[in-house]
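Why do we care about 3D structure at all? Because function follows from shape, and shape follows, mostly, from sequence. That is the central idea of this module. The next example makes it concrete: a single protein chain, its amino acid sequence, and then its structure expressed as tokens.
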Amino acid sequence: MKKNLKFIVLALFIIGAVGLWQASVLQTKNKALESIQQEKVQKNISLTFTFTDTDTKTIEYPLLENNTKNLFAISQEIAGQQNWDFQYKDYGEMGYLVTKINNIENGQDNKYWQYFVNDEQPQVSADKYLPKSGEKIEWRYAGSDF
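And the structure:
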């Protein structure tokens, strides 16, 4: 009987040790996966709205690594969060033209809403542009070269 009891205690000890070891390995794997997922979500773009030379608003917007949300949708979302009026005109296949952000509407003083990525103006409408993490995007209300 004593032998059986020792065997049972030894077996329980081994099972417990193996269980603790597996739990530790699982916890380490879960932390690594969580860290990778956070990195994917923590990538940002910097979005600046320049209303006038002295009135700007910069917002950090989180992007997923494989972003599928276009700049127009992101800008419209931010405008909603800021309680800004956001208007646009749909030109079909050519895309959307943003016509008003907040209280500033296209055409005043021959100025229009235009967007720039890393200080360069893309030649596609905002609804066709997919931002990438780390980009500096600016909506400027300015005179147009076109």
